[in-house]
Amino acid sequence: KAAIIDAHGKMETERVKVATPHPCPPDVLVQKLVELVGPLLTPLPATQISIGFPGVVRDNHVLTAPNLGNEFWRNVPLADMLAEHLGPLPVRIINDAEMQGLAAIEGKGIEFVLTLGTGAGTALFRDGELMPHLELAHHPVNKNKTYDEYLGNAARDKAGNKRWNRRVEKIIGILSSLVNYDRLWIGGGNAANLNFELPDNVKVVSNEAGIEGGARLWHPRS
C-alpha cells in the first residue's frame, strides 16, 4: 500500500495497493514497490519516502521478514535499495506496527500498539518515544502457538470470527498484565472484525494510520 502524505500525515492522494508476491525476495519486492510508487510521484513530487515493513528493522536494514521468507531477508539494506531506484529521494524504514503507532499515539505514558492483519504486529512507546522492538508476534502464547499463529488472518479463517474475537479479548488481557500500558491502540485490516466491547483504555485506529505515521519519521526529535 502507498500514498503521498503531507508533513502532518494527511493523505494527498488516494491509497494505492498491489498484491504481495510470493515468494518475495528483496529484488522482487523492490520492483513491485517501484511500480506501485512511480505513478504517485509524477503529479505530486515527494521529498522523502517512509516505509513500514513487516519484520524486525534496525538502522534502515531489514533483519527478519517471517511472512516474506526469512531465508531472503538477513540484514537487507532495503532503504538504500529503494533509494537507488527512486532517488535522489532519502528513504527511512521501520517496522509497520511502529509506523502505525506513530500516527496513533498521544505521547503520554506507556502506549502499546497491536496490529491484526496477516500476522500480529506490536510496538511500544514511552512518553512518545519508540522503544526497542520486541518481536512478540513470534513468541508462544497458547499451546505453543505464536501470536501470529493465534491471531493472524489464517487463524481467523480457520477458527471463525467468533472464536477469533475471544482470542483477541484474551490477548488484550495478557498484554495488559505484561506491559501495564496506559493505552492500547489496535490497528490492521482485521481490527474491523472486532465485535466485543473494548476496555476504556483500548481503541481501534484507522488502517490509514499505517501510512500516515510515515510523516513522523522525518520530524525532528525534541
Would you kindly provide a written description of the structure presented here, covering whatever features stand out?
This protein has 222 residues and is of the alpha/beta class. It has helices at residues 26-41, 78-86, 96-104, 147-151, 153-159, 161-179, 209-212; strands at residues 49-53, 57-58, 61-62, 91-95, 110-116, 120-126, 129-130, 140-142, 145-146, 183-187, 202-204. The strands form 4 sheets. It has a 5-stranded mixed sheet, with helices on both faces. Helix 1 (26-41) crosses helix 2 and helix 5 (153-159) crosses helix 6 (161-179).
Keywords:
11 strands; 222 residues; globular; 5-stranded mixed beta sheet; two-stranded parallel ribbon; alpha/beta
| Poorly predicted spans | none
Structural class: alpha/beta
Order of helices and strands: HEEEHEHEEEEEHHHEEH
What's the pLDDT, averaged over the residues? 93
Strand content: 15-25%
Question: In which order are the strands of the major sheet placed?
Answer: 7-6-5-10-11
How does the major sheet shape up?
5 strands, mixed
Q: What percent of the residues sit in helical stretches (DSSP H or I)?
A: 25-40%
Overall morphology = globular
**What distance separates the N and C termini?**
30 Å
Radius of gyration: 17 Å
| Count of helical regions | 7
Strand elements, count: 11
